[in-house]
Specification:
about 30% helix; 4-stranded mixed β-sheet; alpha/beta; about 325 residues; 4-stranded antiparallel β-sheet; globular; disordered C terminus
């Protein structure tokens, strides 16, 4: 009995000790877990990573549409540091990955860089827009008096410039440059779609190389045509997976859509932009203006698509002609003017 009593005594006394030890251990582990817990996630700071167009000209258009790309751009207010620039309207996309900004650039604005501030619920950010006075148009954007369509020159721009004297001796009067935009080859597309509408493929050169070619060609009484891949985009373009708007992209390659000018639906040549969307139409008009104003070329050529409406092309052509009445514009194969 003494041994049993002794065992019971130690058991009764030992139980609370074990309970307290377990409680202390649990409390310590809980405190450690709380100490190492991840801090609460803070909203991402707003950021502008890209501006389209990247620059503009004073007095060129009555209003300019900017498409900003980035993160958390759900703006509550946008303003610029120059009193001659007025933000007339903004439109943010769901999620804040894109922001449309309409600007009126006053005629008295001086050349320089405008700094615009974007205010969002998660803080401010800013972007810069270089502005320049228009260069003299004399001797540029002269247009062509012939329907001649020479083959595309796809070589780099510096070598093109070096060959100009030789081409002149051969009697060449028109130099036709293949599209310069960065593009991606897609096996399912009949055309090479664009990856960036406002950049020159570095394998071809730079925007300065283009202006040098045009200037040198004009000095030798040669005219320059530039082809644009205006509406077809590559599958590698960020818009394919994250478009600015739900109605930003048109028919995918191989699909078809009926329009009033077609008796039956026709297949698309490649992934195109939705030309029936007014914002897309304005974006594409400004893109053509940007390339023409930047380079001073005499002709631009565009590749059409059966699913781009004739109404879009008619409006695009009319607005472009208001600014450049002598510019020749062709569409392969039919001529647009």
């Amino acid at each position: 009995m003494t041994g049993l009593a002794s065992l019971q005594k130690h058991s009764i006394i030992g139980s609370p000790i074990r309970f307290v030890s377990i409680a202390v251990l649990f409390t310590t582990m809980s405190a450690t877990a709380l100490f190492h817990a991840s801090p609460p996630q803070t909203p991402a700071a707003p950021q502008v990573t890209k501006i389209e167009p990247p620059n503009w000209w004073i007095g060129l258009t009555s209003e300019t549409l900017l498409l900003l790309s980035g993160q958390d751009l759900e703006a509550t207010h946008v303003s610029c540091n120059l009193p001659t620039i007025r933000v007339t309207r903004t439109q943010a996309t769901v999620g804040g990955d894109y922001l449309f900004v309409w600007l009126k650039i006053g005629a008295s604005t001086r050349s320089g860089t405008a700094i615009c501030r974007v205010t969002t619920p998660n803080g401010p950010t800013s972007f810069e827009l270089p502005l320049a006075a228009r260069a003299a148009i004399q001797g540029k954007v002269q247009g062509l008096a012939t329907d001649e369509i020479p083959p595309r020159d796809e070589s780099d721009l510096r070598s093109v410039r070096e060959r100009l004297p030789q081409l002149k001796k051969m009697g060449t009067t028109l130099l036709r440059l293949a599209p310069l935009t960065m593009s991606g080859a897609d096996p399912n597309n009949a055309v090479h779609g664009v990856v960036d509408f406002y950049s020159v493929d570095p394998r071809r050169g730079s925007l300065k190389d283009l202006t040098d070619v045009v200037t040198s060609a004009h000095e030798q009484q040669m005219k320059v045509a530039l082809d644009l891949e205006l509406i077809h985009i590559s599958s590698h373009h960020p818009w394919v997976t994250k478009p600015p708007l739900a109605e930003w992209l048109g028919a995918p390659p191989g699909s078809s859509r009926a329009h009033s000018q077609h008796l039956a639906p026709v297949p698309s040549l490649g992934r195109i932009l939705d030309t029936e969307n007014p914002l897309v139409a304005l974006y594409l008009l400004q893109n053509a203006i940007w390339w023409t104003e930047s380079s001073g070329v005499d002709q631009i050529g565009v590749t059409s698509d059966p699913n781009a409406t004739s109404e879009f092309w008619a409006s695009w052509l009319a607005e472009l002609k208001k600014i450049y009445p002598h510019l020749t514009i062709i569409n392969e194969p039919p001529r647009l003017q």
